[in-house]
């Protein structure tokens, strides 16, 4: 029988309504919606029998301010860089490594004289330790922290609704130790 009415909903409430003359079987149009306030929209269409002939689009969202990803939570890390086997402290350069998909992207660098120190880095980054004459080693504040891995891998759905879960993760990220055991590089 064709289309009788088109509605645009804003935040779940009717915003615009258009009654269609002649009940066309297709409709192609441009309808303006203001994009100056944060709101979600969807479109509903009805046929002549509104109880049996109706459809709704997926929701789409306009934000008055451009969306930006939140900054990663910071990890506070006690770092030690040492020679594997002897335990001798090594002067090192630590590089933050972020991943774009599977591709490592080197970031900020930190000198670590005497082989130990405390760094605060994004918890999403990894750290690569380099020392002259040694093979570099990369560790993750997340994957190389057994208590954090256990906490996250044992989460259940109700844990995601409990704010204490996030506080525990933030506490674990706030005081961790990473020990880099570097091995001598093979002679060239």
Give the topology.
Blueprint: E1 3-10, E2 13-19, E3 39-47, E4 54-56, E5 60-62, E6 74-83, E7 92-100, E8 103-112, E9 116-122, E10 126-130, E11 137-139, H1 146-153, H2 163-174, E12 176-182
Parallel strand pairs: 6-12
Antiparallel strand pairs: 1-2, 1-3, 3-4, 3-5, 6-9, 7-8, 7-10, 10-11
Task: Tell me what the structure shows.
11% of the residues lie in helices and 43% in strands. The strands form 3 sheets. Strands 1, 2, 3, 4 and 5 form a 5-stranded antiparallel β-sheet that branches. A 4-stranded antiparallel β-sheet has the order 8-7-10-11, with no helix packed on it. It has a 3-stranded mixed β-sheet with strand order 9-6-12. The protein has 188 residues and is mainly beta. Strand 10 and strand 11 (137-139) form a beta hairpin. The chain has 2 domains: 3-62; 74-182, Sandwich (Immunoglobulin-like).
């Amino acid at each position: 029988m064709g289309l009788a009415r088109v509605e645009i909903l804003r935040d779940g409430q009717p915003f615009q309504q258009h009654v269609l003359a002649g009940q066309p079987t297709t409709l192609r149009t441009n309808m303006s919606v203001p994009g100056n306030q944060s709101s979600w929209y969807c479109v509903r269409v009805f046929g002549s029998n509104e109880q049996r002939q109706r459809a709704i689009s997926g929701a789409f969202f306009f934000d008055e301010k451009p969306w930006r990803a939140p900054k990663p939570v910071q990890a506070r890390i006690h770092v030690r860089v040492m020679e594997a086997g002897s335990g001798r402290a090594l002067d090192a350069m630590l590089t933050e490594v972020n991943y774009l998909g599977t591709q490592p992207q080197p970031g900020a660098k930190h000198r670590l004289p005497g082989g130990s120190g405390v760094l605060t880095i994004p918890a999403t980054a990894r750290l690569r330790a380099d020392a002259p004459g040694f093979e570099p080693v990369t560790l993750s504040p997340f994957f190389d922290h057994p208590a954090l891995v256990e906490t996250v891998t044992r989460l259940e759905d109700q844990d995601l609704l409990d704010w204490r879960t996030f506080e525990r993760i933030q506490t674990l990220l706030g005081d961790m130790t990473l020990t880099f055991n570097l091995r001598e590089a093979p002679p060239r």
